[in-house]
Structures are given as C-alpha cells and as structure tokens.
Specification:
By secondary structure, the chain is of the alpha+beta class. The chain is built from 36 helices and 26 strands. The chain has 4 domains: about 150 residues, Calcium-transporting ATPase, cytoplasmic transduction domain A (Distorted Sandwich); about 250 residues, Calcium-transporting ATPase, transmembrane domain (Up-down Bundle); about 160 residues, Rossmann fold, CATH 3.40.50.1000; about 190 residues, Calcium-transporting ATPase, cytoplasmic domain N. Strands 10, 11, 14, 15, 16, 17, 18, 19 and 20 form a 9-stranded mixed sheet that branches. Strands 1, 2, 3, 4, 5, 6 and 7 form a 7-stranded antiparallel sheet that branches. The protein has a 6-stranded mixed sheet with strand order 8-26-25-24-9-21, sandwiched between helices. The two termini are about 35 Å apart.
C-alpha cells in the first residue's frame, strides 16, 4: 500500500514565517533581534524543550539479550526442551533430561552469539550520534557566548561560520557570502546562497532561511532562530522515518514458515502415533514418551545456531569489506533484492564538484591534459580560474605532507574549489600561465579589489595589478550576464570583436551544457574602468561546465547489477537535468524519463505503478514522503527493494525498504539509524559484493537445511517402527541429540561457508514466492536421501541383531550387549551416510564431484569429528552406557562404510536426471 502523508506532516517540514516583514517576524518570536536574556531563554527552554532530536534510542543490554529468546525458533526449541523435561520426569532413565538441558544450552548459546553481534552494532550506532553540533555561539545577555546546542530556543540569535553545522531553523539577519550545503536534507549537490533579510520593509523569503542540519561551506551569518528540536525540518523528516513500519525480512518470513511447518509436522506425527499406539493397546506412559521422542526428533536442534553462525560469519566477512551489518538477517535480504533505489548525491556521485567540460573561444577542449594545455585559450582561462577565486588554500601537514610536500587543500565554495583544483593540477603539469600551480600563479600578481559573488548580479570579479603596474580585471559568472558585457573574445590566441552570431552560438552552448545537468560559468577579463564588471571592457575567454561526478567504481557496479538482474532506480532531490545526466552517464538508463516532485505528487498509486513499469524512469526534485511512496509502490509490485542514501531526506525510504543501506562517511545519523547496513567507505560497489554475499548465504542456508533435515528421517522412523512393529528401539534420544548437536553442526557450518557458485551473479534474483524450505527440499530430504540413509541404517541394525541370534518379535533388554551393539550400528550408519550427504550438498544444482578436491576447513573438520565421535563412542567402554553402544564386528564397519558413496552417488544421479537442473535456482 502506498503510505499516506498527512498535510500536517507536510506542513511541519514546510518553511515558516514566509511573507512576514522583519518587524512582524520579531514580534511573532517576541524578541528584538539582539538576543535573549538568560532568564527568558530558560523560560522558553521549559516551554519548547531542548534542541535535540533523538536519532537512536540506546537499548538496554539486558533487554537486547531478552529479545533473543522470544523469536519463533528459540521458542520452538524451548517448548521441545520443556517436553523433554516432562518425559524425563516420567522416565528418568530415558536420557530426556540430558536432551532438555542440551536444548536449553543451544538456545542460550545462540542468543549470546546474536546478542554480541547486535551489541557491537549498538555501540557503533551510539558513536555516530554527533550530527547536531555539541556547542554553538549564541548572543545571551548582550554578549556572545558558547553554549550547549541543546540550550538553543526560538528567538535566540545564533552565529554560524564556515565549517559549522546549523543547529536550528532560522532567518538570516546579517551575513557575508553565506553558502550552505543542504544536500543531506534536499539531495541537491550544489550549495545554495542565502541573503540577509532587509531591515527596511523586507519580507521573509526562502533565500533568507537556514535549516537545521545544513553545513556552512562559505561565509558567516547572524541567524534569528525560529524552530528547534523536533519542530525543525530535520526533526520532521526524522519523525516521518520513525513513523514508518519496516516489514519482516524475507529470511524472517522464511524462518517463520519453516518453524510453522516443522512444528505442524512434528506435532502431527507425534499425535498420530500416540493415537496409533493407544489403539493397539500399548501403555499410556510408553506412548506419551515415544510421542515426545518423535516430536523432539523432528525438531532440527542444530539448525538455529547454524543459521545464526552462518549469518554472523557472513556479517564478519562484510565488515572486512567496510559494510556494517546492523541486523544479521539483512545479509540474506540483499541476495533476494530485485530493485536498488539510490540517491544520487554522495552515493552515485562524489558530492564534490569537478570541471567536466571546457569551451574555450569557439571550441570544446578536454578538461585537463595535454590537449588542454596546448590550447591557446588555456593561459587566460587558468589565470581567471585562479585569480577570480575566493578559496582558502592550505598545505597538508603530517604524513601526507611528507608524501606530497607541495600539495594544497582548498576550502570554500565547492565551485571555486573545483576550479582551484584544476589550476593546481594543470599548473603543475605545465599549463600556460599556471606554472607551479595555484599559489605560484596568484603570487605573480597583487590583489587590488574584489567583488564577491552576488546572487542578484550573478557574477564575481577581482581586480589585480601586474608587477609592471598594469591593472586588469577577472570575471566569472552566469553565461548570460557575462556575455552581455563582452564586446570582444579571446580565440586562437588573439583578441577580436565578438560577432552577434558567435554570441548566440556561445549562449546556445551554455544552454546545452545546462540542459545536460551541468553547472555553467563564463570566464572573462578586461581593463577595469570601474570597480565592477558592469563598466569594464570585457573579453570573453570561455565556458566552464562543472558536475558532481560519478564515483569511479560505480559504472562497474551498475553493470554488475544489470548482469545479476537487479534494477537501479535513481531518486534524487537534485534538478532533473543533473539526475538524467548522471543516470545516463552511468548506464542506469539510456533514454531517461524524468519524473519530478510535482508530477509525482499528482499521481495516484495506479499511475505510479504504471510509471515504474518503465525501466527508463528516474526521479528528481522529490521530497522524503515521495521517496517513501516510490518504495512502497515497488514493494506493492512484488519487488524486494533495497534503498541507498546518506541524507536525512533518505531516512523514511531507508526504513520502509526491505533493506536500507546508508553511507558511513557522509551519512547522517538519521539515515544510519533508519538503515540495516552501513557502508563505512561510502562505496556503492560494496553493495554489489553484498548482493553476491547475500545470494551465497541464502544458497548455503538452503544447502545446510537440506543436509540437517535429511537426518530427521532415520531419527523418526525408528520410533514409528518401534510403536508399530515388535522390534527393539533402533535409536535413543541421546543418540539423536549427539547427531543434531555434535556431529551435524560443524559440517552444516561448513556448508554455510561454501564460496558462491560460479553462476550466482549471472542469474536473476529469486522470486518472492520461492520458499527457502520448499516442497522439493522436503521431498529430497524426507522422501529420497533420508529414506536411503534409513534403509542402510536399518539394514546394519537388523544384520547385527540377526548375527547375534535375535529373532523377530523376541524381547531384548535395553542394557543387553546385543541391543547396544545394534543401536551403535544404527547410529554409525546415520553418521557415515551424513558424510556422503554433506559432500553432495556442497552444490545445489551442479555436480559436486569437482568440489571433493577443494578443501573446506569446516567440512573437513566436521567429517573428522563425525568419524572420531562414532569410533570413540562405539569402541570406548566408558561411553557405552551413555550412548547405548558396544563394539562392532569388522564386517559391520564395512557395511557402514558403504554409506558415504551410496548417498553421494544417489544425489549425483538425482541432479543428473533432474530436467533443467542447471537453470533452476532451487535444489
């Protein structure tokens, strides 16, 4: 269902006080704009509450540990343990008390493993909580003071400067060249300029607003605080994210189904044979004990810790690849993902502007490299980019300086930083006019005057003096504004008049760049007839087009997703042209259809679903609630949806998705809290490796489920045969326990650590309707291999009895040496058959023969443990009573050793004869 976002929720995130004059604004906030007194601030703090947003509520370790015991599978094991204790009370010598204690131990061990993983993630989440600044500069009692950010209240006067994170919503009262990075909230890659509210009759507009969570990338300002805490725009989006309900992961759903199935199967068989025993006249107590034995035998006690360990080990492997798995079940979810919805800024791109195109004179030239340096227009272009630039250049220190002694770092407007980096890089490579880099070029001239960029004038200018005393002006700004003031142009190394047709051509080129989503600036120079460019005689030099470029590793990751059948949908708050450009450049789409926020808002659910059927669709200028709607629509279409993002605006969609992936370096606390996986290196390519890991772990879980379920059959059939036939009980509950919790565990863990099969990323994602424990797995485990294991074990059991003189129907005491010998043979038959079974289960579809020569340490250790265990309990006298065993004759060992090749061969034959086996996803 598409979520409904109330008008109230939208309004809470909307701009406030728009349209008010300054006097009315001050009156509404009951302040004179010169700061509050401490007493008034304390009063307002009581009324409005502290300026904080709780992104993550710390959880009690005891509560976290207790939660591990209430899932369905632990509850099933606890019920089985309870039944075992009941049986122990009825028949103390039956060994049921031991199995009950072991089941409790399994539940406790599993809870501890899962708890430790979750506790580690909890500690990491708490370490992230630094998004809102700790201390801020306020004007209180007429003086500027540093206070805890929680103390900020509406009506306060807040001081912000470059590098600060804004701690509350407000209106700018005074500023100098204020530039804000709001990408974490809006998704826009370009910084936005803000202006001070006019003191005389000015009305509050969007350009006067600052919002909580934004970063100051340039300038400084004095801000009148209007909203704090959860009343801010940041708080509204956080509240929207916390109000979203996350669905169960596919693995959680599958485990629930499996627990229900195995419970119904176990209880059903137990009840049926209890009734059958009563019908043929067996004693009530004996029937009850055997019914409990059947139920316990059907419960795969080792499956829970094996699943947990497999997922935990997968999480550890992902952590080595800089991906923190907050919930271990999330690993598998990635494997079934069909759609990745991704933000653009900071996720697909570097969130750092870069010079993409240069048009010098009347020709496009590469943005760097030998061809650029050889162009006649390179010298004036490099000089203008360096001299008409307000960045702060600093040298690297420490180890980095030792490696790159002359390296510079730039701080300021991202556009100017990109230009300075081009000058530095190309200047050191020998660009004319830029020899030695940014600092060397500027050092050859004396700065005389500078006019900062103005949002109204749309240009910046700087006047410089040469060593010979000549003044000249450099100008950069909006192409239309700069071209209008240029009468001449610099082309092919000459200065000549700028013709009308050439002006139109240059304007058209600038428009074409803008249509591609690039940010375009025009460069010019001239003689300063005045202190600004309006009266100067300007010479046009060229156009510079910038873009927030894709990360280098993303194209390969996109191609891998396409091969794996995973669709990528771009959802960004950035402008349509930029989103389309990046999506097309990365190969996500070829002919993008861009849907912007207003168009999306007008769509009902049916229209949105129809739009999403078109795989060329990308979304731009959309709000957090609209991202949420897109994710919900995709889920309604049957997709398993992963969402990536780093901003506050991504949080609701991250939480609504089947799997939310946030960025650890640039990601906000809101996004990290809402996500299931945190990429510590912000590397989109890690997602592809995580998808491969998820698919592999799902395949491996199915493999060891198949392996573990198989031994249930030879564990169940002896109880059934004992009730229906006049024979001794072939297996005891202690022997069942030894299989499930000793010999099967290590091989199952080994299957959970098998490497991905060769085709894992060349096949489409599994269907939502595909079951982890399918009817085919049950048929294979219960109706084929399980029966084969039972046949061999029963054969050895009866052969030993017959060789010892037992006749059909004759009573045999539970402590008789012959009975112990036959029961030991039955146990050995199961264990050796499981050796062949684990080897056969190493592949789901293809032949496992090639894998026999490839070492899996866990499986090798498991097989060694199985063999050592059965030889020890059969041959060591001290263990005979506990495990109901006795030494076997040599011929019985020979029969038992037929188990591995028999089971392996039958499974290989089944794979060979199964139609279309290599194309199927399920075994």
């Amino acid at each position: 269902m598409r979520p409904t976002v109330s008008r109230t929720a939208r309004a809470s995130a909307a701009p406030s006080f728009l349209g008010l004059e300054r006097a009315a604004l001050l009156a509404a906030l009951k302040t004179d704009g010169e700061g509050l007194t401490s007493a008034e601030a304390r009063s307002r703090l009581r009324r409005h509450g502290p300026n904080e947003i709780v992104f993550h509520r710390a959880r009690s370790p005891l509560a976290m540990l207790a939660a591990e015991f209430v899932a369905l599978f632990p509850l099933l094991l606890l019920v089985a343990a309870g039944l075992s204790f009941v049986a122990h009370a009825l028949v103390p010598e039956g060994g049921y008390g031991l199995i009950g204690g072991a089941l409790l131990g399994v539940v406790v061990l599993n809870a501890l493993v899962s708890f430790l993983q979750n506790y580690r993630v909890e500690k990491l989440m708490l370490s992230f909580l630094d998004y809102i600044p700790r201390r801020v500069a306020l004007k209180r009692d007429g003086a500027k003071v540093l206070l805890d950010a929680k103390a900020v209240v509406p009506g306060d006067v807040l001081f912000i400067q470059e590098g600060d994170k804004v701690s509350a919503d407000g209106i700018v009262l005074a500023c100098e060249r204020l530039l804000l990075d709001e990408s974490a909230l809006t998704g826009e890659s370009e910084p936005v300029a803000r202006r001070a509210l006019d003191a005389d009759g000015g009305r509050v507009e969007a350009e006067h607003r600052v919002v909580s969570g934004a970063t100051v990338v340039g300038g400084n300002a004095r801000v009148l605080v209007t909203r704090t805490g959860r009343a801010t725009g940041l708080g509204a989006v956080s509240a929207l994210a916390q109000g979203v309900t996350a669905d169960l992961t596919p693995m959680q759903q599958e485990l629930r189904r499996f627990v229900r199935r195995i419970t119904v199967l176990a209880v059903g068989i137990g009840v049926v044979f209890f009734a059958a025993g009563m019908a043929i006249g067996n004693p009530f107590l004996a029937n009850l004990v055997f019914a409990v034995g059947i139920i316990v035998a059907n419960v795969p006690e080792g499956l829970l810790p094996t699943v947990t360990l497999a997922l935990t080990q997968s999480s550890v492997r992902m952590s080595r690849r800089n991906a923190v798995i907050k919930h271990i079940l999330s690993v598998e979810t990635l494997g079934s993902t069909t759609v990745v919805c991704t933000d653009k800024t900071g996720t697909l791109t570097r969130n750092r502007l870069h010079v993409e195109r240069l048009f010098l004179g009347l020709d496009e030239v590469p943005a760097g490299g030998p061809d650029f340096r050889a162009d006649p227009g390179a010298r004036p272009a490099v000089e203008i980019m360096a001299l008409c630039n307000g960045v702060l250049a600093t040298r690297d220190g420490g180890a980095r300086r030792n490696a790159h002694r002359d390296a510079l770092r730039f701080k300021g407007d991202p556009t100017e930083v990109a230009l300075a980096e081009l000058v530095e890089r190309e200047g050191r490579a020998g660009a004319p006019g830029g020899e030695g880099g940014f600092e060397a070029l500027r050092g050859r001239f004396e700065n005389v005057a500078e006019r900062p960029f103005d949002a109204d004038a749309k240009y910046m200018s700087a006047t410089w003096r040469t060593r010979g005393g000549t003044l000249f002006m450099t100008v950069k700004g909006a192409p239309g504004v700069v071209l209008e003031r240029c009468a001449r142009m610099h082309a092919e190394g000459l200065v000549r008049p700028l013709a009308g047709a050439e002006r139109e051509r240059l304007a058209a080129r600038a428009d074409a760049y803008a249509d591609e989503g690039l940010r375009v600036l025009a460069l010019a120079y001239g003689l300063p007839a005045a202190e600004d460019a309006e009266a100067a005689d300007l010479v046009f030099v060229g156009l510079v087009a910038l873009v927030d470029p894709p990360r280098r590793e993303v194209p390969a990751a996109v191609a891998a997703c396409r091969t794996a059948g995973v669709r990528i949908v771009v959802m960004s708050g950035d402008k349509a042209e930029t989103v389309a450009y990046i999506a097309k450049q990365l190969g996500i789409v070829t002919a993008p259809r861009v849907i912007e926020g207003p168009e999306l808002e007008a769509m009902d659910e049916a229209a949105l679903v129809a739009a999403l059927e078109d795989e060329q669709v990308v979304f731009a200028r959309i709000a957090p609630a609209q991202k949420l709607a897109v994710v919900s629509a995709l889920k309604a279409m049957g997709h398993v949806v992963a969402v990536t993002g780093d901003g506050v605006n991504d949080a609701p969609a991250l939480k609504r998705a089947d799997i939310g992936i946030s960025m650890g370096l640039r990601g906000t606390d809101v996004a990290k809290e809402a996500s299931d996986i945190i990429l510590l290196d912000d590397n989109f390519a890690t997602i592809v490796r995580a998808i491969e890991e998820g698919r592999a772990v799902y395949d491996n879980i199915r493999k060891f489920v198949t392996y573990v379920l198989t031994s249930n059959v030879p564990e169940i059939l002896p109880f059934i045969a004992y009730v229906l036939l006049p024979i001794p009980l072939p297996i005891t509950v202690v022997q069942i326990l030894s299989i499930d919790l000793i010999t099967d565990i290590l091989p199952a863990i080994g299957l959970g650590n098998e490497p991905p099969e060769a085709d894992v990323m060349r096949r489409p994602p599994r269907s939502r309707d595909e079951r982890m424990v399918s009817a085919r797995i049950f048929a294979r485990s219960y109706g084929f291999i399980g029966l084969a294991e039972s046949a061999l074990s029963f054969g050895v059991f009866f052969a030993v009895l017959h060789a010892g003189g037992w006749t059909w129907g004759a009573p045999l005491a539970a402590d008789a040496p012959l009975y112990r010998q036959a029961a030991g043979a039955f146990l050995a038959g199961i264990i050796f058959c499981q050796v062949g079974n684990v080897m056969a289960c190493r592949t789901a579809r293809q032949s496992a023969l090639p894998h026999l020569a490839r070492l899996n340490p866990w499986i090798a250790a498991g097989v060694a443990l199985e063999v050592a265990f059965i030889v020890t309990v059969v041959e060591a006298p001290g263990l005979h009573r506990l495990f109901t065993t006795a030494p076997l004759p040599a011929w019985a060992w020979g029969a038992v050793l037929l188990g591995p090749p028999l089971v392996f061969g039958l499974e290989e034959l089944r794979k060979l004869l199964a139609p279309g086996r290599r194309k199927r996803a399920s075994p």
